[in-house]
Design goal:
Elements lengths: L1 H9 L2 H22 L2 H8 L1 E2 L1 E3 L7 H15 L8 H14 L4 E9 L5 E9 L2 E4 L8 E8 L2 E3 L4
Antiparallel strand pairs: 1-6, 2-7, 3-4, 3-6, 4-5
Helix pairs in contact: 2-4, 2-5, 4-5
């Protein structure tokens, strides 16, 4: 435990701040996950649209937020699933006026059971959930920032 504290203190101040902020937003997102989704959905962005892959974003900030959310999610005492991480990352980036698209997808596991996954993209960078996103069919998108119509119905 002391090693982790020492490692945290050695981080640059912006990364320390982002880790603490991520912890807060992960907790907030976990609470939001308990609410009916139709109450939460409007806060995630405009439905069935995406932000541009070509948009210019603050790459360093996107990568720092990604690092903070993924790292902090490993140390929460609540379940910080992909949706919790996606909501937290979206809120952190939108707070900084950085556009995002939150994706929700479904697939079937090896037993044929339906499973879901959520991930976030900002510009051409994937913020959370990228490691398994290609295994899922996109069923919903939520965009904040400059948006264009997607072909989702």
């Amino acid at each position: 435990m002391l090693y982790k504290i020492k490692k945290f203190i050695q981080l640059e101040s912006q990364r320390r701040y982002l880790l603490l902020e991520a912890f807060f937003y992960l907790g907030r997102a976990r609470y939001l996950k308990l609410l009916p989704f139709e109450k939460v959905a409007p806060s995630l962005g405009e439905q069935s649209v995406e932000t541009s892959i070509c948009s210019s974003v603050n790459e360093k900030m996107v990568k720092d937020v990604s690092f903070a959310v993924i790292k902090a999610s490993k140390h929460t005492f609540w379940d910080s699933s992909c949706l919790v991480q996606a909501i937290a990352a979206t809120k952190m980036l939108n707070k900084r006026k950085i556009e995002t698209t939150l994706y929700m997808g479904i697939a079937r596991d090896e037993n044929g059971e339906m499973i879901a996954h959520a991930w976030v993209r900002s510009g051409s960078l994937f913020v959370t959930g990228a490691e398994t996103m290609n295994q899922f069919t996109i069923v919903k998108t939520f965009a904040k920032g400059s948006v264009y119509q997607s072909d989702m119905g």
